[in-house]
Design goal:
Elements lengths: L55 E2 L14 H25 L2 H27 L3 H6 L4 H14 L3 H14 L3 E4 L2 E4 H16 L6 H27 L2 H5 L1 H4 L12 H9 L10 H9 L27 E2 L4 H40 L7 H13 L1 H42 L3 H21 L7 H29 L9 H29 L16 H28 L15
Parallel strand pairs: 1-4
Antiparallel strand pairs: 2-3
Helix pairs in contact: 1-2, 1-7, 1-10, 1-12, 1-14, 2-11, 2-12, 2-16, 2-17, 4-14, 4-16, 5-6, 5-14, 5-16, 6-15, 7-12, 7-14, 10-16, 10-17, 13-14, 14-15, 16-17, 16-18, 17-18
């Protein structure tokens, strides 16, 4: 039963773990006598749990050192490298100047807050964020599943990686069972098969994903630094802080889909961000250490039960100290791995694009291959091919992992558990189906379409998803968590801003689409609101109503929780 039967002391040894205390740096898990646990008391310190059973009462695990828990944010960085960092933002900077880079920095900071708030529920309860939103209403995770498929169902990153790899290797057309196929399509199929095979290597599938993503991310960053050393300008990089305040070419209003996609992919975006919850559960962060992990059903290892309902800890002194430690180390892992890597790589690649690209290329891939590669010479050009291939493939790998892990959790909790399904078998089945789906698309005429254009659609959908789920996460983390683990006022206000940020651009995108593509001029929207049509005003009003309603319920929950847990301030650390 974890630490619950052991007497506490107030020393640091009872808060911070030694390497011998845990199984880090690989994923960590502690089995518990789940059915014998005491249920959390139903009092003012434990808010209404919503739909679902009670939380089991356990002590929070000891806090490991930062170096032992690096992994989940590296996977998230890999998901970002082939999208915003190499494609969207370098292209926007090349076309419209450094002023947009300031918007990227703001979006990256917003993603940091949102991602760590996604982690909060799992850190405090062990449950996934999808299970947390289910405690609000079962339709919420179902809507997230649908949005995830719409935004990630097209294997565009694999197609783009394959096209770049085939161009770099000068692959032609090949005969496959009497059918002529372009070399890039065959390479794309090989990549999808490779992704599927990697999951068969170890009993715990998360471990191989983490290790391969760490390798791919490290190689991508290495080649980005090499490229900068070859053709980059230190002066351009050093001038970024001054240049972000300068006005550049104005972004056309009809490019709002590209901008929203870029804002979403200033940090993976959409359905991908939600994977942070499941990755930290697999890694064993906080109460996730007790929740269970998904193992390969055909690896012959003993399965682990992923429990339906999570856990909570009594607000005793040692647990409050541990929560403060966990919250600090979790934020540091995300800050130093994800946010720092994101900003450095984007700044490097944007500076190169700004220097060598004219901004006239139709797509981001054309910008790199048609404009920049001929301008930098054969050796640096080869580095660009390698970098783009690695970044795009890393993103596709993370997309497959994210979609399958998220979707299997949603389907299992909503339907599969009650039906008696096996979660590992469901995961493996979805993995196989999703990879086969990607292969079918790569073989179909749909693949002949411009991958970047389809990636813009998927990116915009990812941005549209973020506004409603940021609202839902705010409610989960305040209405459903006790005082000592719920976000502080600084976080609450930051999440209000994050929701407003993505909601604003979502209204612009929806209104523009309805007015221009659907021919419904009554829904035209103006960036300053005042010039909108009647339907546009309705969109703005709906946006404002949702924002205000969530702000009210969150603020009410915060006020109601104040003073319900003695010594709750002891759990508050940096940016709580």
């Amino acid at each position: 039963m974890g630490d619950t039967d052991r007497p506490h002391d107030d020393g640091a040894d009872d808060v911070y773990a030694s390497p011998e205390d845990m199984d880090y740096p690989t994923a960590s898990y502690t089995p518990v006598a789940y059915d014998n646990l005491d249920a959390a008391p139903e009092n003012e310190s434990q808010p209404e749990r919503g739909t679902g059973g009670p939380f089991g009462l356990l002590d929070l695990p000891k806090v490991p050192k930062l170096k032992y828990i690096v992994g989940p944010s590296a996977i998230m960085l890999g998901a970002s490298l082939g999208s915003g960092e190499t494609l969207f933002w370098p292209t926007l900077v090349a076309r419209y100047g450094w002023a947009l880079f300031g918007l990227f920095l703001l979006a990256a900071a917003v993603h940091f807050v949102v991602n760590t708030e996604i982690q909060r529920w799992t850190l405090a309860t062990g449950e996934s964020v999808f299970r947390g939103t289910e405690r609000l209403h079962p339709v919420v995770p179902l809507a997230l599943l649908a949005g995830g498929f719409v935004s990630l169902g097209w294997p565009g990153w694999a197609a783009s990686a394959a096209k770049i790899g085939a161009a770099g290797l000068s692959l032609g057309t090949y005969d496959l069972l009497g059918t002529e196929l372009a070399g890039w399509r065959l390479l794309g199929i090989v990549l999808m098969v490779f992704i599927w095979l990697t999951y068969q290597l170890t009993p715990l599938m998360y471990n191989v994903v983490e290790r391969l993503q760490l390798l791919l991310v490290s190689l991508s960053i290495f080649f980005a630094v090499v490229l900068f050393a070859l053709v980059g300008s230190v002066e351009t990089l050093a001038s970024i802080p001054a240049n972000v305040s300068l006005s550049g070419n104005q972004l056309p209003f009809d490019s709002i889909a590209v901008l929203l996609g870029a804002l979403a992919y200033a940090g993976a975006g959409g359905y991908l961000n939600l994977s942070q919850s499941l990755w930290i559960r697999e890694k064993g962060y906080g109460m996730g250490r007790y929740q269970g992990r998904i193992k390969n059903p055909f690896a012959g290892d003993e399965p682990e039960t992923v429990h339906r309902d999570g856990f909570t800890f009594a607000p005793e002194r040692v647990n409050l100290d541990r929560w403060r430690g966990w919250w600090r180390v979790t934020q540091l892992e995300h800050l130093l791995t994800f946010l720092a890597g994101l900003v450095v790589v984007t700044a490097i690649l944007a500076s190169i694009a700004f220097t060598y690209a004219s901004g006239s290329a139709e797509t981001a891939v054309d910008m790199w291959l048609v404009e920049i590669v001929p301008a930098v010479g054969p050796f640096a050009g080869s580095v660009i091919y390698i970098l783009l291939f690695l970044a795009l493939f890393t993103t596709e790998y993370a997309i497959v992992e994210s979609f399958v892990r998220n979707s299997s959790d949603v389907i299992y909790e909503l339907y599969g558990r009650e039906a008696g399904w096996s979660l590992p078998r469901l995961f493996w089945t979805l993995l196989t189906v999703f990879c086969l789906w990607g292969i079918v698309i790569l073989l179909s005429p749909l693949a002949a379409q411009d991958p970047f254009g389809l990636l813009v659609v998927g990116a915009a959908m990812s941005g549209l998803m973020m506004w409603p789920y940021i609202l839902a996460i705010q409610l989960v983390n305040t209405v459903r968590l006790p005082e000592h683990t719920m976000p502080g006022w600084g976080r609450v206000v930051s999440m209000w801003f994050a929701a407003g940020f993505f909601g604003y651009f979502s209204v612009l995108l929806v209104g523009t689409f309805l007015a221009t593509r659907a021919g419904l001029g009554a829904f035209a929207v103006d960036p300053f609101v005042a010039g909108s049509a009647a339907g546009g005003y309705a969109l703005w009003l709906g946006y404002a109503a949702a924002q205000v309603a969530v702000m009210y319920y969150v603020a009410r929950a915060k006020r109601a929780a104040t003073g319900t847990v003695a010594d709750a301030d002891r759990a508050k650390g940096w940016f709580p």
